[in-house]
Amino acid sequence: MKNSHLFWGTLALLLPLISEAALYKWVNENGEVVYSDKPPPRNVETQKIKPPPRPSVNPEAAMQQLRDRANSFEERRQKRGEAEQEQKQAAAQATQKQQRCDKLREKLSFLTINNRVGEKNADGEVSLLNEDQRQQKISKTRALIQKDCK
Question: What is the DSSP secondary structure assignment for residue 31, as one 8-state letter?
Answer without folding.
Answer: S
